[in-house]
């Protein structure tokens, strides 16, 4: 009986430690639901890779995603998708291939979090941006993506022309 209780406790602690949290108050979806919503709405996808215990994810959530204007901008113009870069939760790629969230992280080189990936409504990668970013950074990325500038410029070229 003691062993059973111990294993149950370890299991609860372990499962609780495997989940990361997206920014509060945002309508983040899982990967599969997000791809479906993007196809239906025609909106680009904002994919946020985080992980449990990521101090920079927490910092980004508190300092950047707490901005009400940014929340409105991204909620209205993107399908928001959150993926735990260490999770074993299964998802389906646009090709139909089934992999885990962690495997998606490896494919997109999400070795450090947070990592932000902008995708077309069909799930094709537009641009990938690592690390803590400010509200202004996300406004610039929004202009790059929704303005279609990625079709003829790199993000670096776009940002350089801004100065």
What does it look like?
44% of the residues lie in helices and 18% in strands. Strands 2-1-5-6 form a 4-stranded mixed sheet, with helices on both faces. The protein has a two-stranded antiparallel sheet with strand order 3-4. It is globular. It has helices at 2-16, 31-41, 55-63, 68-77, 101-107, 135-146, 155-162; strands at residues 45-50, 79-84, 90-92, 98-100, 115-119, 125-130. Residues 3-19 have low confidence and may be disordered.
Task: Report on the biggest sheet.
Answer: 4 strands, mixed
* Shape descriptor: globular
H-E string:
HHEHHEEEHEEHH
Fraction of residues in β-strands: 15-25%
**Unreliable residue stretches:** 3-19
Mean pLDDT: 88
Radius of gyration: 17 Å
Oligomerization status of the protein chains: single chain
Beta strands, count: 6
What helical percentage do the residues reach? 40-55%
Count of alpha and pi helical runs:
7
How would you describe this structure in keywords?
163 residues; 44% helix; alpha+beta; two-stranded antiparallel sheet; 6 strands; 7 helices
